[in-house]
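Q: I'm writing up a methods section and want to include an example of the input and output format. Could you take the sequence below and give the corresponding predicted structure tokens, formatted cleanly so I can copy it straight into the document?
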Amino acid sequence: MLHDALLEESSSPWERGRHSEVDFAADESGLWIVYPAHDEEGFLREVIVLSRLDPSDLSMRRETTWRTGLRRNHYGNCFVVCGVLYAVDSHDRRDAKLEYAYDTHTNTQMTPRMPFTNNYSYTAQIDYNPKEGVLYAWDNGHQVTYNIKFAFVDP
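A: Here is the clean output for your methods example:
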């Protein structure tokens, strides 16, 4: 049950063709759910919640749920890689950017500002495949893949 989810009609890019704004993601650490909710203080500001699901019963636990600084309707698509939520700023501009990242390991948010190309100018979905280490996307009826590489830097 998503007691705090905001499931209503809106102009969100996730809500194409009357589909839900709730998204599932999988990465090396498990299954995740991503959805909009009110911020922690109960203000009308709508934020994106990221929660790792318990694999035994698909329940959410408070200790594995994060209210991010990502605002609803301020991004095009998002995906999870290695416990980090990434958001692309536009789903319908060819030259978009990864404009937001939330790291669940450190509880910090970042602005990576990395280029992201929507080849066919309308990306409806982006998902990470941890086994293959690639992003899969649906872009204006075309399935596209993005090879990704991570460079870890010691602080």
